[in-house]
Amino acid sequence: MDQQDEKSSDKTELGHTLESTGSENTQQTVDPIQPKRDIGAFQIIALGFNIPNSWLAVAVAFSTALTAGGPVSLIYGNFVITAMYGSAAVTLAELASVYPTAGGQYHFASIMAPKRFNKSISYVCGMIATVSWIICSASVCSVTSLCIAAIAEFYNGYQASAWQLFLISQALNVISLLYNLFLLKKTHWIHDAAFFLTLATFVSVSVVCLARGDKQSSTWVWTSFESSSGWTPVVSFFTGLTTHAYMFGGLDATLHLAEETLDASRTVPKALMSTIGIGFFSGFVFSVAMAYCLPSLDVLANDLVPVYKLWRMASKSDTAGTVFLIIIIILLTYIIAATQQTTSRLLWALARDRGLVFSSQFAKLSSKLGDIPMAALLLDAGLIFVCGCISLGSSAAFNALVGVFSLMQMISFAIPAALLIYHYAAVVLAIIAIVMAVNWFVFAKKHYQGPRIEFAE
């Protein structure tokens, strides 16, 4: 194990040179700033799934699929989104096995891009990835505050105002910040605990709702397409994919923690592929279970958290539905802390590469707190606060911001993938050219007579 860890450490030692595979090789060096490697293999796999948390993501984003296709969108959307993110995961896993660094996709882009463009391409990729992570954290804060407000509304008839939701979300932001600053390095076991809790909750919710709820027919569940969006069926179906787009939100989390992971070149790729596998299974099974338990879609349309009402109805117990939602709130609070942890490492990597204003400050690691990027954590929490202020000023603007999260994330994945294809394309074209040349000299030069065109009179 020591030899493996040493080998992995050698690959990611940031004082070493990374060689570009672009058309003109270049060499890039950064300051040898390295955190402690204290995240084990199972912990990084657990964290990698905990942040996207596919079945939970489907649960909290339930309403879009219901209004844009009903059960068909809810079930079959899993296949479309898994195919998209699975392709991205394979590419990222391949690159992470060679370059396991905290910069993740923007480091990959810099390494593979031609020398002339590697700085600009990697910077754009890094900023897109960073902004998407900040939006992700802010959106989880917002969703958690809505879940808390839903319980208060159901039991007390209390409707929280926008500023109260803002205060709840920022309280969660501060709690997560304090946890990351003072407790995270002492409690890595929390990733394992959250992993087992989310899987246990997934099984419990699915079994209880199926066992106690009134069930729809299989024909309705698997073939019924109901849309109240006013769009054509095709457009409605793709609109409904918004629900499933969150299934793998934060797929790249393990990339940005690679420099704190033991034997990262092996465990990070495994974590990426495990996230896809567990995510598809849990998301698909949960979607099918909830589709069988759906009442009339109109019943859930105007609820603050539609899945909360569905759980109360399907379990035939207000208490059971509330307990399920409380566990979801606990898991979401953990996810906020985990997204802060991940985003701070990405900000730290950008600062270490001098991509941010005041980079010298944000690139520092606090030895007193266990070699964590304290300044980057504070910056992340501050930016989440700014996003929260946007929601306070205009919910439409905040929803638009959240709406581009998945798009920005996929763009950051696509940039290194496109560069990877770019390099393979040159090889493919060369092989095709050789085959054509051989065919020309061996056969076509003597026998090919050009096009023969006959015109009918």
TrEMBL record:
Gene Ontology MF terms: transmembrane transporter activity
TM annotation in the entry: 44-68, 74-99, 120-151, 163-182, 194-213, 271-294, 319-337, 421-443
Entry membrane topology: Multi-pass membrane protein
Cellular component annotations (GO), alphabetically ordered: membrane
Protein's UniProt keywords contain Repeat: no
Protein's cellular compartments: Membrane
Biased composition (Polar residues): 18-31
Basic and acidic residues bias spans: 1-16
Main location: membrane
InterPro entries for this protein: AA/rel_permease1
Region named Disordered: 1-31
Top-rank taxon, per record: Eukaryota
Keywords attached to this entry: Membrane, Transmembrane, Transmembrane helix, Transport
Keyword ATP-binding: no
Protein name per UniProt: Choline transport protein
Organism of provenance: Trichoderma asperellum (Filamentous fungus)
Lineage: Eukaryota, Fungi, Dikarya, Ascomycota, Pezizomycotina
